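User: Show me a protein chain along with its predicted structure.
Assistant: Here is one chain, sequence first, then structure tokens.
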Amino acid sequence: MKKQLSDIEKKEYSYLISVLSSAVNETAVPVPYEGINWLRLFKISKVCGLNSAFANTVLTLPKEYLPNDETVKILKENINAEILIDSNHGYEIEKVISAFDKYKIKNVPLKGYFIKNEYPRSDFRSISDYDILFDRNQIDLVKKAFSELGYEFLHNDDNQYHFQKKPYMYIEMHATLVHEWESYYPYLADIIDSAVKRDGYEFSYELSLEDHYLYMLVHNSNHFRMGGLSIRMLLDTYVYYRNHKEDFDFDYLNDKLRLFKLDTFEKRIREIAFNWFSPDRQRITFDDLEVFILLSARLGRLDAGVMIGSHKMIKSAKKEGKSKSKFSYFLRSVFPNKKSMSVHYPYVNKYPFLVPVSWIQMWFRRFFIEKNVSVKKGLKNRFSYTDDDIKYYEGLLKETGFDDFEFK
């Protein structure tokens, strides 16, 4: 799982980080290095969900340093597409918030809703879905509001209700910020009660600056411990902390960080974020943690996530005196249990004997509709990781303040 970057990859990621730094700091773009592969860099930025920031900023280069005409055309088309999506997102989400006012549904928009506005332009920071905290007791009103706006209710899991309006809108309504089994839950369970009403709305609220930053860290640390921490997450950390550090109540914030056992994680991640994106620093060390982040795409590394899930299952079974193996995890991946299948196929709750039918539906959809299955890669991820890979990841956990795989 541990990977070393080649010299050309280090050049590519260094330049990508410098372009993103220029985007959020609104500074001049560095002159590109000789032989730069613009399309490859654009592809990396797209995988990270930062293609609009990259494309817009690259096009501010002096004419003699711009990519060729064909690449410039691709960048401009991408910019126009992202502006369109961003405009639609903004229009649609405000319709949802207005509908919540109409039905007196208390709501607290989270993460991307506000983070987008921390960037010089909202389209610089793409999002795949909106997250909104609400009171579960109002779910019937929530469903009614969404239905009137043309949304489809997809499914619900432990603490989230999922709504979609094609082609762009996907909204997750959170009954809680985290799952009840997570260690953070007791501290975040009633956070909706401390949210402050937003100007111009009757029933829309927002977290304090400190609580919003804490939730970002909780969310990012969970992603990290499940498989990755992305460039975009670090850029979010940089712009949010930079924009609000003068207004933070650091006594409150630091107490909460210690209480959540996130003080080491926050310090290390903020250190990297500011080393990468501050215009007066711009220093990438390419140590193990930084490389892990650089290769984590938008949400994390699949190979890391599979290894973590497999190893945790094996360790948990061993503690209970049971025997589990990589093959056991493979079987669970191919044939998920009823609880997992019920998220997308709720009929199995009423008719458990139809779980095998849901497996057929799932794999038909993935192979022939979504076409997102790589048998070779799937087998490799589940069977090829070694004890050295586990030690490598445990080292990353310890560096950021997490002792081992036994986390909640």
